[in-house]
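Standup notes
- DV: blocked on the single-chain target, sequence here:
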Amino acid sequence: MRRFIQSVFLFLIPIFTVQAQQRQSYSLEDVIPGGNNYANLRPENIPGLQWWGDVYVRTDVEAVYKVDIRNGKETVLATLEEVDNALQNGEKPYKSESRLKPLRTLASASMPWGDRNVIVFLNKAETGDGNEDYMCWYDFSQKKIVNMFRIQGGGKQPANLDFCKENGYVAYTVGRNLFVANEGDFSRQINEACTGCAEDPEKDVVYGQAVHRNEFGIYKGTFWSPEGTYLAFYRMDQSMVTDYPQVNTSTRIATLEPDKYPMAGMTSHKVTVGIYNVKTGKTVYLQADDPTDRYFTNVSWSPDEKHVYVIELNRDQNHARLVSYNAVTGEKKNVLYEEKHARYVEPQHPLTFLPWDGTKFIYQSQRDGFNHLYVMDMKAPQEGKWTTGKDSEAQYREYLKTTPLTKGDWLVQSVAGFNKTKKEVIITSTEISPIQSNVFTVNTRNGKRTLIGSDRGMHSIQVSASGKYLIDSYTSAQVGRSVNLLPTDGKKGHNLLTADDPMAERYDLPEITVGTIKAADGTTDLYYRLIKPVNFDPNKKYPAIIYVYGGPHAQMIHDTRFYDARGWDLYMAQKGYVMLTVDNRGSDNRGIRFENVTFRHLGVEEMKDQVKGVELLKSLPYVDANRIGVHGWSFGGFMTTNLMLTYPDLFKAGVAGGPVIDWKYYEVMYGERYMDTPETNPEGYKNSDLKQKAGNLKGRLEIIIGGTDPTCVPQHTYTFLRACIDAGTHPDLFIYPEDGHNMMGRDRVHLHEHITRYFEDHLK
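- DV (later): unblocked, structure below
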């Protein structure tokens, strides 16, 4: 009997072990980016996937592989050892005079030419100026380096690298200057260098970088022409912009390191667009008249390189014009299209010409309420220049023939590529659901759409050169990650990876539900995400926290892993909190009417919708209505502070990160789009100034900021503290010295530990 009991006990040990593992607790190190174990708990992925023409390849640390589309079988194209040997033993002119460091990985290598056996990568070398980057081309059929050139930084790190596969040049910036480099060339500085100047007259002018504070879909500052003959670039003159006095406290005596920061209603920078001729080395600037109080967005090229197109916007941001310029002379040619809106127009995408017809391009617009595609025909039925003052849709179309390609109460999120043979556009859209991003092909002749891949989740895709295939990586609430190789004709593809969620295998996770509630207007559906505590007991009363963002261009709930819940939300659910998030009116991916309801009075309608979330929490029998907290960052910090001050009896505690306090202190582009200027909308600015409500604070509120935040500058928080002192209220403050708008790395783990402690102390 004893021997039997022992054998049964030994048999049960593995079961007990598995159950114990399932009931493990996860820590902030597991769920916060920067945590020691965070990377190990992400669903498996296949890094380095890309297209080599229509051939699917994978780059890894040790090798570059060609993958058979039919069965996934891999063939080695180049190994790290082979490439490194060619680097160290190559012959001139492709042997650096400086000592090249051993190449450590091929994971970041690219294969830009579908018809050449060449991989391109960056490597470092030790030079007199320190470490410098070299761009290297390795021909794996010849097993040798076929090109190498130095990307000079003069001791500074080059940035904004923009490689042109048509001419082999790379454009890049060092500090405020713009350079190009190519085979056998030392880098050439495009903007004129001031040698021997006692004082640099252009010290406040920036070349080749994103402008207008990265609004209007602007994320880069250089634009190669289709054949690489020209480089268009931004020139931003900030000499007239006020310096915001950021202070670096890491030096022995704190150092003034100001940011150029144009606040709402103040003087903004001036932008011009230059065109650099690679062969002649000459630059012309577009003759766009006075750049004062104008925005130059979405630069694009005609297929024949003869014209440059810019979508220009007035400072009120309610009138956009599509303008063409002569690429050789910079001369303004025509205004091809105009769009106006009583509130704002927000161009986010450059023109995309149809690969099979250089006279037609796709223009993206929200003019019908949702972002959709319109095919515009340059062969206009009426020739001649546009006559200003023609405002109606019909009159626009008289000049430039416009055909809607997509339509409906959903929006196109991206144009990912084209199937040239079938004359189809490949897009991602919200057609299936506002909380999803799915892949469709759109036939340009009849508008017919065909779903490609799964009808669930959020999809990220790469399209092959011909558009016949795509690599589709997606995640949903049910799928940790799925990577698939799909034909774009709608037929079945090949699954490369389906990965489970490692957190689900190791830990007890909370129950997460997504649903809808009515907005404060009584008609609009709002999505919410509700997370119950781990090991939920319906007979208990739990504290609850609303995590909020609420502003434009952000959506907090998607059909992804955990429905987009952050690691901190899961962590707080483990600690016994109910977590709620509501995407209020004003947030993203629901159309312009849903977003611009907040125009000229930010924080009003959004808060009403968040209060509907509070009402949902109070209706749940397991939520303690006296212990409701709120937390958010940036716009969410503004919302958190505003909710605590406007509805002081609803919230017991809040943590506001990097908050906007007074929109007069926020930057020109974003602030004026949604609020107009302080001079034209004084009542709106007054009502959204949280300093005016400082005396309303009842619960415990902590504000957390980065000490040199360049986005929501510290003045927001400092002036609010002054207002609270004057009003006799007592918020708390925590500062991350030398950090910017967000905390990264280990600071991010510390941040969430700090936020957790605050709620544990004042809400639980």
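- Follow-up: The first helix runs from residue 2 to 22.
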